[in-house]
Structure formats: C-alpha cells, structure tokens
Amino acid sequence: MKQHTDLPCDLLPTAVRQFFAAHIVRDADTASSFLAEDVVIVDQDETFRGREEAYAFLRDAGSEFEYTTEQIGAHRVDDTHWVVTVRLEGSFPGGVAELDYRFALRDDLIAELIIANHPA
Fold this sequence. Notes:
The protein is an alpha+beta fold. The protein has helices at residues 14-24, 28-32, 50-60; strands at residues 35-43, 46-49, 67-76, 81-90, 96-106, 109-117. It has 3 helices and 6 strands. It is globular and about 35 Å long. The two termini are 22 Å apart.
C-alpha cells in the first residue's frame, strides 16, 4: 500500500491501522478482531450490524473483482472519529474509486465504519 497522506499511518489509532492492514490483504478474521461486538458498518446503501454480519461483509466485499488499494489521505476528526481516504483501481465498473472510511472508536475498537464515495 502506497501512502500519500496528511496524517502518517503510524499516527492512526492501532485499531484503525491494523484493521486496514488486514482488510487490504482480505484477511477478514484479523480485520474483524478490531470490531466491537455491536459494530455497525455502512457501505454505500447497505448496513451490517454486529460482528457476525460485519465479518461476512469483510469476507465477501469486492471478492468478485481484482483491485489495488492505496491510502491517499487520513485525518483525525476528534478523539474518537477518524477518516481514511483510499483509492481503489481494478476490474470493477468504472475502474477507479476514491472512498472515505469513516471510523468511530469505542474502547479501542471500531464501533462504526461508514464507507462512502470521497467528495470530488
């Protein structure tokens, strides 16, 4: 993963940093270990509630496509909210997408993750 960011990756909270490291290599087991039991993940218009649904989402999301992920930005909103912007390039419709991963943390775990298109 290449990094062009206003916040160095090593300054992201451990849960966010390690979640991303696992998510990028499609390791749903490890990625889901950084999620709260009652996590809520929203990806575009779909909502996944609880660690079990979140695990299935992480395991299956994008599995039908080949793509690369590059972190192109990151910033702290406040003590519990962080945003990481990634650029995906691959065999999915459109071929390129920039997405914001908006994290809310609770007790050093990811309590909420909203994945949405990065504003142009």
